[in-house]
Write a structure and sequence with these properties.
about 100 residues; mainly alpha
Length: about 100
């Protein structure tokens, strides 16, 4: 699926590009990509669990650039709303 999409698009998109598009601001995408740390995880490795202390990435981001933190939070809320809307539509169709 991804290979097909990339072939249709003609180019692979970078993390910086994707973040810039998602956040609606090239500078935010650049800054957030620079702040990200790549983690290589195994197939069954747990990267987060309820009740464990979170890594303070969002707090640091909020302290260093409140506008970027707000843009990221808005992006997350928008994605969650889209997924909830889609799930509600699917449930409505399946309920018929």
């Amino acid at each position: 699926m991804i290979e097909t999409h990339l072939a249709e698009a003609g180019t692979a998109r970078t993390l910086r590009y994707w973040l810039s598009q998602a956040l609606g601001n090239e500078g935010y995408g650049e800054e957030l990509a620079a702040a990200c740390e790549r983690l290589d995880v195994g197939k069954n490795e747990i990267i987060a669990a309820q009740g464990e202390p979170e890594r303070r990435f969002y707090e640091r981001l909020k302290r260093d650039n409140v506008l970027l933190a707000q843009a990221l939070l808005t992006c997350v809320i928008r994605v969650m709303a889209e997924r909830l809307s889609f799930a509600s539509k699917v449930i409505g169709v399946l309920s018929r």
